[in-house]
Each structure stands twice: as C-alpha cells, then as structure tokens.
Predict the 3D structure of the following.
Amino acid sequence: MELDHKKIAEEMQKMEYEPLEPIEKKLITWSISIGVVSLVLLYWISATFFPAAHGV
C-alpha cells in the first residue's frame, strides 16, 4: 500500500501544469450557476407550497 502511494506521488510530480481551457471555465461556471439557481428555486417552491415544513 505504501509503495502505491509513493508511485502515485512520483507520477504526480512528473506531471506538467495544465491550465483550464476557456470552454472548461465556462462549463464550470454554468454548472455552479445552474446548481445555485436550482437550490433557490426548489427552496422557494418548498416554502410556497409546503409552509408547514418551514415552521410558518
């Protein structure tokens, strides 16, 4: 098990830094944005249609 960790560490040190491509940055931004908007929307739906669950 220790040997595997050493091999992995060595291989990671050999790897070159690869910056994100512009399209990858856009995909990450879109994914996070969709997630946040979905959370807000679902919370609003829950609070509107199921107010007892929110202690109102």
Summary: The two ends are 54 Å apart (CA to CA). Residues 18-56 form one domain.
